Amino acid sequence: MKLIDKIPLLRNYRTAASHKQxxxxxxxxxxRPGTTITLxxxxxxxxxxxxxxxxxxxxxxxxxxxxxxxxxxYNDTLLDPHLFCVAQKRKSGVLGRKIExxxxxxxxxxxxxxxxxxxxxxxxxxxxxxxxxxxxxxxFYLNEKGWIDYYCVPxxxxxxxxxxxxxxxxxxxxxxxxxxGDLLMIxxxxxxxxxxxxxxYVLYKRGTMNDWAEFSELFGMPIRKYxxxxxxxxxxxxAMDAAAGQGGANVYFCPSDSNLEFIESNxxxxxxxxxASLVDRCNxxxxxxxxxxxxTTEASETGxxxxxxxxxxxxxxxxxxDALFILNLLNYDMTDQFAALGVxxxxxxxxxxxxxxxxxxxxxxxxxxxxVTVFHLPLGDDYLYEQLxxxxxxxxxxxxxxxxxxxxxxxQPFPSVGADPCVRPDTQVKAHPQxxxxxxxxxAPQPEDGALDW
Length: 454
Hints:
This is DUF935 family protein. By secondary structure, the protein is an alpha+beta fold.
């Protein structure tokens, strides 16, 4: 039996007409006719600042937005190791949290079985990519095994302003979103995404790295100089053969009656440090654009522990915002998709499962014990079970009654002060204050008792 057969279906699902004929978006190349989208390979390594400015203007065109070149640029910049690293670091702040669905405060195993499958982790990552690219468009469906799955529509084939899906990426027109069913449009906070801010620094960094590599090639290795006799043609061939067998460093050949002079930079070390400083600066700007800080990714000579703590707090605040973004997406924007796929989320909510450290639980238990035994604060049993992360037993009421009966049997009447322990409590007479003082202070020794009479 498929998993969908085990999930209770809602009665008020979308009708067949509301499914937009149940059309699926398909992709292929030029030699696979019949597909909804014909893919084109992205352009790479051909961008400079002029290309970036042109792509940005085309993407912000009000009447006919053209984002193909901008998204090719985004694909190209994500090859930068530092940008890719900080982007994954920001997403890991949410991907590392466990999400579960609860109804009336209790986990719903039928829904949690679906979100525990591999599609859900991919979905969270693609949803977070909307913050970097500006949007993400998904089409949901049930696969052959009955699990939820989805197709992420290539962004170059989507016009998010006019809400069109284009057959070819350079087309001006396309089919509207309403022609397909179960689409989910996820919009980021910025229309063009975070990558629009980081792209210039990747281009600057790439140009600087090229210049740095050329500088190292020219001045990082010694230059060999061969002098030959201009009157002997065979000496030139012999010198060239000798140079070819000694590696690929720069070689100069000059006749003996000529002069070759090398004029080098006065400060090679300073020139190399200039390239390194510019690369570091570009990396720092990308870190701030994605993570809001720099010290959580790279060490600083002037950084302190306190400053690092502040930077980490800023990064944590961004992770919390992204986590709330995902919860709002699941609890509000995806209700129609879940209902159409046979997953009943009515009356419940998606929440994060907070993993509490064992040391924190131990400290909290000691604090609660002190509150009850020392300060005599009345605390409810349900609150204690919740705080100590202990499951409440099924026969809780029976166990409480047995404990109360046991305490009643073990309780003994407390004797009055000055009462004789050998006499029953109901026959004792209330002690006089003088008697209480006699019992508290010891009897003074008398001479007849053998005490010395001074």
